[in-house]
């Protein structure tokens, strides 16, 4: 079997080559991996000619026209090396006879721990302190944070990652609120109170997003949500960029509703993230204005990036490929009927 990997970085090659070598040594399957740094879209789909499957990532374009091109080149399976699949046209894939797989849970802790790292950085101004101390500026002016202990944390989406975040926040001694159409027994057992979205927005000092992006919840955090929040709310998004209307974040930062904003995902990240643009002029004015705020921090969609997660992603993706080869269902298939597109 031959798999063409798009948007492949050095760390992807290392993890996939290592795990594929282990698979081959066990005599289970002989899989050929072809890596391309370029992202996937209808124009680059031709690179997959001669491949049985394509392995893609969060910002690749798997819309109907790309999938049609891929099907024309003989590609029969899409192996998403991530949990989300909001960038795949599942109806088109089904129509074209392409099976879509994903990696549903490679390391919920990796993402949750990153969300908490962002929360702590934002709250205790670590990003500013780091810059200052490098300049031998040891002034503490403007570095005052708040105790997380005793504060109310609101978690939106209590699936695998939301639960991992709740476990950590419980350790901090927070009052825990959650909003999810499908409440979790594990969260309830932890003492989490499920409330409606308005109550969560009104009562939380810290809000962290852990739900998938769907057409229904696009911009769920926008002007109306900000109008319900307390002054000085800390907002963390490690889920998907379009859950947050970033234009209205600027307003919420200016009027003090947001005391801090930490984004690992950004609605227009496709033209920015995963590339070194340090020698270029960024054309995205909203991004530039946000980056200029002292209480906004970005990371470039790196919440998943731990050694453990990379190994799990490679292992599960290769297992998905083997299941496809053997025509065996393994539960990681994504069909248009799957509602929760995490
Ligand atoms: P999951 O399927 O285990 O949980 C998602 C939860 O969200 C479910 O409980 C679901 O009921 C809930 N939900 C669905 N729609 C909702 C809504 N409108 N409001 C509130 N809750 C809603 O998924 P997961 O593994 O916890 O992943 C969550 C998301 O994290 C993924 O969809 C993905 O977008 C994002 N993610 C980001 C990274 C990263 O590196 N930044 C990595 C992995 C996943």
Automatic annotation (TrEMBL):
Q: Respond yes or no to whether keyword NAD is given for this record.
A: yes
Listed GO molecular functions? D-lactate dehydrogenase (NAD+) activity; NAD binding
Domain D-isomer specific 2-hydroxyacid dehydrogenase NAD-binding, by residue range, is 116-303
Alphabetized Gene3D superfamilies for the sequence: NAD(P)-binding Rossmann-like Domain
Q: Fetch the InterPro entries from UniProt.
A: D-isomer_2_OHA_DH_cat_dom, D-isomer_DH_CS, D-isomer_DH_CS1, D-isomer_DH_NAD-bd, D-LDH-like, NAD(P)-bd_dom_sf
Domain called D-isomer specific 2-hydroxyacid dehydrogenase catalytic: residue spans? 28-334
Report the coiled-coil segments: none
Q: Which CDD domains match?
A: LDH_like_2
- Name the keywords, alphabetized: NAD, Oxidoreductase
Q: What is this protein called?
A: Lactate dehydrogenase
The organism encoding this protein is Neiella marina
